[in-house]
């Protein structure tokens, strides 16, 4: 319990069971505010579950529920503030709402490439593009980081996208 009846709680439960991953979160916040007719009470319930069919494919569900009740005090004149800075005639605005959202997710990682290669000892890599179409070339260079206590590697990634109008013979 804090000033002005402030209460704030938060908990998270997360884990895995076989091919299923779960994440539950609950939050609660309440305060009566410093001024009259000033309060806030909000909650959050969040759940995310995901089933991994294999290491490249998963199906998930996100659910989120968030009710909110609050009041904001109206403005005061300088005279009213000097008399009692905590007073207010009525709330300036009252919020009494809630939201519920849900989403079904599907993730699929595609790792089949038209061609792969590695560079030689001079850092040169070669391959032949023979089919027309839109192409994406990705290059990744990884070197050990100077201080392995900070991180393991520097990783540099580059991409080049282009269209080849006709097949190469």
Entry keywords:
two-stranded antiparallel ribbon, five-stranded antiparallel beta sheet, 1 helix, mainly beta, 169 residues
Poorly predicted regions are none
Number of strands: 7
- Topology as a string of helices (H) and strands (E): EEEEHEEE
Estimate the strand proportion: over 45%
| Chain-averaged pLDDT | 86
Strand order of the largest sheet: 1-2-3-4-5
What class would the helix/strand composition place it in?
A: mainly beta
Helix content: under 10%
- In total, the number of domains comes to 2
Shape by Cα distribution: elongated
- Rounded to the nearest angstrom, the distance between the terminal CA atoms is 77 Å
Main sheet makeup:
5 strands, antiparallel
Write the layout of secondary structure elements.
Layout: E1 7-17, E2 20-31, E3 39-52, E4 57-73, H1 78-83, E5 91-108, E6 133-144, E7 153-164
Antiparallel strand pairs: 1-2, 2-3, 3-4, 4-5, 6-7
């Amino acid at each position: 319990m804090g000033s002005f009846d402030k209460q704030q709680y938060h908990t998270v439960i997360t884990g895995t069971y076989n091919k299923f991953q779960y994440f539950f979160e609950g939050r609660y916040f309440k305060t009566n505010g410093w001024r009259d007719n000033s309060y806030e009470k909000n909650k959050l319930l969040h759940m995310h579950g995901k089933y991994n069919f294999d290491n490249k494919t998963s199906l998930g569900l996100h659910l989120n529920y968030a009710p909110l009740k609050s009041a904001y005090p109206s403005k005061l004149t300088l005279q009213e503030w000097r008399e009692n800075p905590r007073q207010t005639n009525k709330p300036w605005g009252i919020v009494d709402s809630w939201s519920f959202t849900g989403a079904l997710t599907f993730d699929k990682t595609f790792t089949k490439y038209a061609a792969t290669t590695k560079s030689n000892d001079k850092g040169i890599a070669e391959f032949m593009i023979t089919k027309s179409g839109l192409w994406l070339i990705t290059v990744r260079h990884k070197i050990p980081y100077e201080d392995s206590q900070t991180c393991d590697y520097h990783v540099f990634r580059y991409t080049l996208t282009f269209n080849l109008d006709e097949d190469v013979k």
